[in-house]
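Assess this:
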Amino acid sequence: MDAIDKRILRTLHAEGRITNADLAERVGLSPSPCLARTRRLEESGAIRGYMALLDQAALGLPDTVIIEVMCEKHDDATLKRFEQAVNAMPEVIEAWLVTGEYDYVLKAAVGGTAGYEKLLREKIYKLPGVRHTRTTFTLRCLKQSHTPVP
């Protein structure tokens, strides 16, 4: 990956809907080689896809909670069932298997304390193998980004 590839990635990261002609101009290439490089970056997996960023508040889910989950068991079957269930929850917008006291960290979009309680009681507590949770309500997002370009 050279400097031009990195400029392509940075530009697409900031403006995913930019036209190839505008992208080529920004990175100093003609359109045909720019498109070829972009396709190569897609095929290599450096670009995994394109998506729209949605506004949680506009969708009626203004609050973000961070939920730490401790599991009772750590066998493959239990963890697999847990992970499949979490992946099926639209409220959970990010999920990580982590080291430390807790096994998983979930980031969820909820509609206030009532929305959080509903998520917790109707979904999280019913997940296979959940032993304990600890939740933090976020106050304000200071930075939101995705994978940085080296």
In short: The first strand starts at residue 63 and ends at 71. The chain has two domains: 3-44, 57-137. The mean pLDDT is 94.
